[in-house]
Amino acid sequence: xxIEIVVFDGFDELDVFGPFEVLSMAGFDVGLVAxxxxxxVTSMRGVQLQAPEVLNQADGVIVPGGGWLNRAPEGAWxxxxxxxxxxxxxxxxxxxxxxxxxxxxxxxxxxxxxxxxRRATTNRNAYDELRAYDVTVLDERVVDDGDRVxxxxxxxxxxxxLWLTERELGAAAADRVAASIEYQTARR
Length: 188
Prior knowledge:
The protein contains seven helices and eleven strands. With 188 residues, it is α/β, with parallel strands linked by helices. α5 (127-131) links the parallel β8 (119-120) and β9. α1 (13-25) packs parallel to α6 (156-169) and α3 (84-92) crosses α4 (105-111). It is globular and about 40 Å long. The two termini are 24 Å apart.
């Protein structure tokens, strides 16, 4: 199973590397991918990485947050305003098994129209904004609404990775990963 985690200038590091660590340890083929073209991407706190590929035909897609609450010139809010990432997600949604988000990445999914009429979560400080997209907001670490899975703020990305591992590979696989990273999961 191929899982692509979208990285863009201004992404939040924990939103990306939490699920990346968990899903990679579970044995999934996980790639960090750019929105439009391969190249250097800089996180909201200055971590630079090379994204060797662009968002393509993945089985699962994860969208991080970062920069939404303060309307940063780079980050999730900027991506939603530019419209390229939401359009790309909309185009890929029918062929993906699921699309997921961490923190304010849910607002990018919502901007793409992918959460309309669904249950979801995000950073607590963005609940009202998410509701404005006709989303039923739940105060949970992870909300699974079939082919859309959302996680709350920051560290909930670890829970997202474990939830997706359990969903795809079973509880024993998720328990093994949780034990190996010494993480007390909130997924049950």
